Amino acid sequence: MKVWLLKKMGAFLIFIWAAASLIFFLVHTIPGDPVVAMLGKMPRLEDIRRLQQAMRLDRPLAEQYIHFIQNLLRLDLGESIIDRRPVISSIRRYFPNTIILASAAMFLAMLIAIPLGMLAALKKKGFWYAGSLVFSTVGLAIPGFLTGILLIILFSIRLRWLPVSGSGKIQFLILPALTLAISLSAFLTRVIQTAVAGELSQPYVLLARAKGLSEFHIFSRHVLRNALIPIITIVGLQLGALLSGTIVIENVFSWPGIGTLLITAIRQRDFPMIQGIALSLAILYLLLNFLVDLSYPMIDPRIGHDYR
Q1: According to DSSP H, which parts of 56-165 are helical?
Q2: Which of 190, 192, 219, 260 is buried deepest, with most CB atoms within 10 A?
């Protein structure tokens, strides 16, 4: 158990280093000089050189990379080029809103996908199967921003039940969370349906029925538990993707999350802020995958801690 856990933690740290390095070099490929963007139109050459020296942007790229890694080990993500505030403080201010939005969207998605996917797997023909197929197909086909616009037209403009944008109260959260949940639940419905239907076709289900076990006992004690492995894997991956996928929806609904902060940083060529946000999202994504790995032996003891 200890060796397995140490291997997983070692791989987790290596992935963080690889993600940080990739983000650093990709950010420096963004066209435009952040110093010029900061100083405005027609800056003086002396001002440009002075600011570049103060921000270490005149140093070779390799030296900037080493300095970036050293600061990262001290949990220092640098300062914003625009407002000179620590990047970590801005992330702490905006990230909770993104986590709230992603958690609410995942809750709504599971609330829709679990019963619909299970009913479609149990009722292989009929209304539930056809309904889940139509819902998942349409939900995956419509882009998220278009779903958000349609919901705004219906619930904000026509019915006037919910506000178009903003934050603070729960009514501001409903539309962006529902927008994210629709496409996510469409995908999870297919995953749950496939996983449960696959387990129902296994020989142990036929054997359990031959022994006289009730359908509820077979489903709750055997089928559902075996189907949880692929379901939890996909949910963990989708939750990580959901945190980064809120960027577009946050801008549609003016939700003050990490996506809004990232778009602003990209427009202003704020390299430290872009690096900090991208790295925070990458670390959270890797952490969710790490937790999913830890959950496997708890769900199914047959897997053990030395599986490949």
Answers
A1: 61-73, 87-122, 127-141, 144-151
A2: 192
Tokens 């029925």 sit on residue: 209
Backbone angles phi, psi at 32, to 5 degrees: 105, 150
Residue showing tokens 């856990």 = 5
Give counts: helices (H), strands (E), the chain: 13, 0
Model pTM score: 0.79
Hey, what are 102's tokens?
């992603």
- CA distances 304 to 8, 164, 238, 286, 299, Å, are 14, 49, 25, 21, 10
How long is the chain?
A: 308
Whether 90 contacts 274, CB under 8 Å: no
pLDDT tens digit string along 64-117? 888 888 888 888 888 887 777 888 888 888 888 888 888 899 899 999 988 888
pLDDT in tens, 256-275: 888 888 888 888 777 788 88
What residue type is assigned to position 157 of the chain? I
Q: What are 250's two structure tokens?
A: 């946050």
